[in-house]
Design a protein that fits this description.
The chain is an alpha/beta fold. It folds into three domains: 74 residues, Udp-n-acetylmuramoylalanyl-d-glutamate--2,6- Diaminopimelate Ligase, Chain: A, domain 1 (3-Layer(aba) Sandwich), CATH 3.40.1390; 223 residues, Mur-like, catalytic domain (UDP-N-acetylmuramoyl-L-alanine:D-glutamate ligase, 3-Layer(aba) Sandwich); 165 residues, Mur ligase, C-terminal domain (Protein-Tyrosine Phosphatase, Chain A), CATH 3.90.190. Helix content is 33%, strand content 23%. The chain has 16 helices and 25 strands. The strands form six sheets. The protein has an eight-stranded mixed sheet with strand order 10-9-8-11-7-12-13-14, with helices on both faces. Helix 2 packs parallel to helix 4, helix 11 runs parallel beside helix 12 and helix 12 packs across helix 13.
Amino acid sequence: MKAAIERGPAGWRIDPGVTGIAIDSRAVVPGNVFVAIPGASHDGHLFAAQAVSQGAVAIVGERLDVTARVPYVVVPSSRMAAAELADEFYGHPSQAMRCVAVTGTNGKTSVVYWLTHVLRYAGFKTGMVSSVVNDTGLHQHPATLTTPESPDLQQYLAEMRDYGMTHAVVEVSSHGIVQQRVRHVSFEMAVLTNITREHLDFHGSMDRYVGAKSRLFEELSPNSLGILNAEDQYYTTVRERTSAPVMSYGIDQGQVRAVILEDGPNHSVVDIIHPAFRATARIPHPGRYNVFNVLAVTAAASWFGVPPDLLVEALEHLPPVPGRWHVLHETGRPMVIVDYAHTPDGLLQVLKSLGRLGRTAVWLVLGARGGRDHGKRPEMGRIAAMLADHVILTTDSPYAEDPAEIAESLAKGIREVDASKLYRLELDRTKAIALAIESAAPEDVVLITGRGPETTQHIGSQSVRLVDAEVVQNVLKTRIGTPEDMKSWRD
């Protein structure tokens, strides 16, 4: 009997009868090849028998299972094999399109959204893979990871190719790079927004985190383009690690620069200075950090030949990005902003932007994700103490961690800045949001950070639906809580 897959010197041979590549045994359907991946909490090798019972026709893994009743291929790296198999199974889809990778600590989702918008505005058929949605043109697949696992990513790229897409913009996380999810994706361009502290629970150190981001640029061909933030502290490090040409950008430094002519509460007017043109645009999003995002988009779009006049027109119609600076307001109630800011730098930038709103006081609802970098929590607390007038500490998605302990690590940072700083603990996130809104005066602003557009909160082994914007809308239209309690807290 001919094996469903074989691995030889020239690569993988996959039988036409194979129906797909799976790395989750629960998702295996008849005809799939199951790739067993050893993970941090679960070892896929332990589920090989389950995969076979569900119809897997071959197993790929890092150690041989002599009990397997189907062909079993042993490989040095299951993750690398999954990426190779998926690329082969779907017919190397990235080679049929002009693919862009966007990475960085903060801002990458905005750059992905806005670059996709600009390219579409200019008439290019463009697909998008992001932490919010995976839009292939044919379907909109929900996002569960910032960068999908390699079989899913290759499937989305194949859908784009088959639907006639000419460009694909892919959000690439450091996890996605280290775990080989984007291996065998042929990127013509890679964009770096910035690198600040994040994911040290996974990488272990900033050097390793920077190394992961840099790897994306190391793998660019000399015919590709790297777009780098000239004002990022790791600009030189990343630039030295790529053999591809580089285009730099920044407000004060770089080949693509901007003069901020107007820094409004809901917009920015910028004079964009590009080596090939100069143009003024009114960007419908506030904040210096968004100017950086726009410059990255400008550099990328110009490489693809978008004319300056069409580029400016597209920039002046940039859509909102889900969960980023989502403003909700009702007459007679405080302005409320929901934002995904979940890193020290992200929190710092969004709090700085609030100063342009001219509001009397800033109320901050702050939490931190469980199972993530513990060291960033006191730093976020210190930023909150310096830039917010009132802080309500609550849960984000604590997973297996004690929510009270997470909140205490945030509180420690607050006390380091100001031991008398007024903050309150409310671990029920819905109640915390209500408390902030009901406590704030109509002329104040309430900032709710950490989750942005996320729809599920994970507490222990439970997962519950929770959308910050929906909670806000309910609170703005109704009174929740005891007015007397709210008043005493406000006073």
